[in-house]
Amino acid sequence: WCGEAATVAAELGISITAVAKGVLWTVGPREIEERLELADGAVLRYRQVPGSFSNPNGGVNVRVLQWLRQQCLAVLSQRGGGGAGSGTLLEMYNGCGNHTVALASLFGKVIAVEGDPALVDVARRNYALNGITNVEQVGSTCEAFAETWTDQFAADLVIVDPPRTGLSQQALSIVRSSAHAIILSCNQHRLRESLDTLVATHTVVAAAFMDHFPWSEQSECGVRLCRRGEEGARTNV
Predict the structure, then answer these.
(1) Helix spans in 112-168 (H)
(2) Catalytic, out of 91, 114, 220, 226
């Protein structure tokens, strides 16, 4: 296989990666660079590595990033005190920095939390690749991080993008304590369970559906929540 793959890779100028029975085989560089262009012309660069999570649909990913930026700007405008380039974002389950890279310029400081050491390494490299210097990357599970989170680290906005199993109780407690939060979920059923708890203290002020997984039962959904009494102006769904 390696000999045939090497011939094809050389002819096409590409790398080829295959996985069989848990074994990863690669001919050529094991990383690729992905470039995403946003509506405002900004180009985001990402290193992606085999075996680690990345978004499957680049076009939909761009739409997600643009929706997130819109929601972040709405929160910053609502809270006052400087608008874009100010405030603190806490992002949990931030993976390779997919959202972080797109949102970091909107905040004065970003605290990003990820438990997979390989993704933490790639995230830090992606920040450097994009000239981002205001992110504090925490290598920790969100559950362990939640045990150390106190009011002295209060963020203006919390974003969580949990795995398909949904938000842990520890992460849910941070969202519940936050005035503004965004939940992205690839499992609409787990999202509904979280919202059943959060609607007692928060209001959903914006929502979006992103079809990352066409022809499957899974749906990528995003909701922005504000603590009751702090909703301000609603944004369009």
Answers:
(1) 117-129, 142-148
(2) 220
Given a contact cutoff of 8 angstroms between Cβ atoms, the answer to whether 204 and 225 are in contact is yes
Task: For strands 43-48 and 32-37, give the pairing.
Answer: antiparallel
Look up 217 and say whether it is catalytic: no
pTM of the model: 0.87
User: Closest Cα to residue 68, out of 154, 176, 180?
Assistant: 180
User: Which listed residue (72, 186, 221, 226) is catalytic?
Assistant: 186
Handedness of CA 126, 39, 203, 78 (dihedral sign): positive
pLDDT digits (tens, 9 = 90+) for 221-231: 999 999 997 75
- For residue 34, report the phi and psi dihedrals to the nearest 5 degrees: -105, 135
Can 193 be counted among the known catalytic residues?
Answer: no
pLDDT tens, position by position, 182-227: 999 988 889 999 999 999 999 999 999 988 777 777 778 999 999 9
What is the bridge-based pairing of β-strands 43-48 and 16-20? unpaired
- Mode of pairing for the β-strands spanning 157-160 and 135-139: unpaired
**The token pair that represents 62 in the structure block:** 């761009």
Chain centroid offset of residue 92 CA? 8
